[in-house]
Amino acid sequence: MLIRKPDDVRPSEITPETLYRNRRDFLKAAGFASVASVAGLGVSGCAEAEVRAASQLGPYDTDEEQTPYEAVTGYNNFYEFGTAKDEPARYAHTLQPRPWTVQVDGLVRDPKTWDLDDLLAGFTMEDRVYRMRCVEGWSMVIPWYGFPMAGLINKLEPLPSARYVRMETLVDEEQMPGQRRGFFGYTLDWPYVEGLRMDEARNPLTFMALGVYGREGPNQNGAPIRLVVPWKYGFKGVKSIVRISFVEDEPLNTWQQENSREYRFFANVNPNVDHPRWSQAREQRIGELFKRETLMFNGYADQVAHMYEGMDLRQFF
Amino acid sequence: MRREPFLKWVAKPVVFLLCLFPAARLAYDFFTGGLSFNPIDDVTDISGRWTLRFLLITLAVTPVRRLTGFSPLTRFRRMIGLFAFFYAMIHLAMHVIFGFVFDIGAVLRDIPQRPFITAGFLAWIAMLPLALTSTRGWIARLGGRRWQRLHRLVYVSAAAGVIHYFWNYKVTEPGPVLYIGLAALLLGFRLVTRMRSRSGPSAV
Ligand code: HEM
Questions:
Q1: A226 vs A102, A240, B5, B13, CA distance in Å?
Q2: A219 domain residue, yes or no
């Protein structure tokens, strides 16, 4: 595992297209030119490509083909910048990731508003290669850059009465043009809210990402700080976080508020519990031709299944 | 029957090529990497949308003729309808080949389980007899009236198609709302003309 201290390496020193894998692996796997072109996108950054050997992978990393940087940063769901997949990449330049503050409140020893850099002080940044499964039925393999959430929770010292952590995205129509009322007066209700049970938040897989591919940013991936919960559908990964609250009751997350028949709180990846309108049994891995089977808890059952023992996953989906 | 060389040798081939253009463009983009990072999904979506567009064009022929007394598209309606089916087959093939990797059993089991897919299937199955009976032989065999009555299934296809489109989205988007509006307008026109022709002599 590549481990850097944040003060060792500044983001500007890291090449933008740090690629860990040989592009030939991608091209081999791809049949058609279109899929190959997705897979082969690493080409542009290949001169500076840095191949990370399997021995450098940590215990939580997957060794699957990593989705090319251009796809990871060019095909996003981030409705604050628009609902089309290419809109976040086109419009997220208006977001200013610094200076940035994070309000910490609720059942916590010292409620206060942190400057992000103070909040990050003392954490060792690392890379985590996780599968990411979107509720819409597509998936990627993304090398995230950041630190485990458990450390953040220890630093913030929630009170024992805290049972959930609730997180909010920035609300700012200037920086996030997708938050303006659309043509039909329709958007989600802002701010975007997500939450986790405390044991989920403390799970060693749960990760606070500052960016992807070994560096901070880019904005469309949730800069300057976002949540990554690899065994849950992607929408749990609240982006551009400005508020963290420790609470007693289960937070009402945005997609549940939007449509509680289709989305609830847990959102654990589960091929056996379908979305009311479409199957969750298979997924389109970006860069592949045929859909592949979706794994229980997105393949992280060993690390997380114990947290849901005895729960009816059809009811708590 | 009077031969119409212009129609046969110029107009029809031109319309044919126009209808084929979206598919050619899609194939070109697919093989040259001109689509998004999820090209399989793009082909499914784009072919689905063209199915719907061609269906709605066939439905617009009669209202346009009734309202303006003139509709250049009347002569091409059958061809456009068949193109709707052609795009539906691309759409369905993507679903069966890449979505389910030829597991036909799983495809079939999936249909009644999800209203979204049920609606798409309904839209497709309603087009199937129309495509099969689109030949001159079948028109003669069924007779004009029965053939026309059968071809009212296109209303079912359009209605189910726009609902299928609407249900594909996580949130309400302008696209599907626009198509639902257009379909409602075109189907509503039939309803209104029927009611008028029943209730009085001033039929349009
Ligand atoms: C058995 C028949 C059908 C099946 C199984 C089916 C399946 C699907 C699926 C899985 C999608 C989602 C694609 C994706 O985004 O991943 C879709 C989208 C769509 N389908 Fe179908 N479909 C069927 C028939 C039809 C027919 C007959 C029409 C047109 C009348 C149609 C029009 C559409 C449209 C417009 C979309 C959405 C495109 C977009 O998102 O822009 N489908 N269909």
A1: 12, 6, 66, 55
A2: yes
Domain residues for the domain of A28 are: 6-308
Quote the percentage of chain A above a pLDDT of 70. Answer: 81
What's residue A259's pLDDT? 86
Question: Could you tell me if A282 and B99 are in contact, meaning their C-beta atoms sit under 8 angstroms apart?
Answer: yes
Is B41 in Cβ contact with A274 (below 8 Å)?
no
- Asked if the structure places residue A315 within a domain, the reply is no
Q: Which residues of A touch B33 (CB under 8 A)?
A: 33-34, 36-38
Task: Put the strands of the sheet holding A112-115 in their side by side order.
Answer: A112-115, A101-106, A241-247, A164-169, A193-197
In sequence order, which ranges of chain A are alpha helices (DSSP H)?
A: 23-29, 33-39, 69-72, 87-91, 116-120, 149-156, 198-202, 254-258, 301-304
Residue of A279, A288, A292 best to disrupt the B interface, most CBs of B under 10 A = A279
pLDDT number for residue A126? 96
Predicted confidence (pLDDT) per residue in B32-85, tens digit:
989 999 999 999 999 999 999 999 999 999 999 988 887 778 889 999 999 999
Residues of chain B positioned with their CB less than 8 A from the CB of A282: 99-100
SS3 content of chain B, % helix, strand, coil (to 5): 85, 0, 15
Tell me how many degrees the CA angle A94-A100-A102 measures, rounded to the nearest 5. 130
For A67, which DSSP code?
A: P
- Cα–Cα distance measured from residue B204 to residue B197, given in angstroms and rounded to the nearest whole number: 7
CB contact under 8 A, B115 and A277: yes
Average pLDDT of chain B to the nearest whole number: 91
As for how many domains chain A has, the answer is: 1
Asked if B36 and A86 come within 8 Å (Cβ–Cβ), the reply is: yes
Structure tokens at B191: 């309803």
- Taking CB atoms and a 6 Å cutoff, what residues make up the pocket around ligand 1? B 41, 44-45, 48-49, 51-52, 55, 88, 91-92, 95, 117, 120-121, 123-124, 161, 164-165, 168
Question: The domain spanning residue A155 has which CATH number?
Answer: 3.90.420.10
In whole angstroms, how far apart are CA B149 and each of B13, B135, B184? 28, 16, 20
Determine if the peptide bond prior to A191 is cis (ω within 30°).
yes
Q: Measured in angstroms, how far is the CA atom of residue B88 from the centroid of ligand 1? A: 8
User: Contacts for A250-257 with beta carbons within 8 Å, 24 or more apart?
Assistant: A250/A164, A250/A195, A250/A197, A251/A164, A251/A166, A251/A193, A251/A194, A251/A195, A252/A193, A253/A193, A253/A194, A253/A195, A254/A188, A254/A189, A254/A192, A254/A193, A254/A194, A257/A189, A257/A193
Chain A residues within an 8 Å CB radius of B177: 184
CA atoms within 13 A on the CB side of A285: 24
Asked if A186 lies within 8 A of B41 by C-beta distance, the reply is no
Closest Cα in chain A to B97: A290
Pair of tokens at residue A57: 């992978």
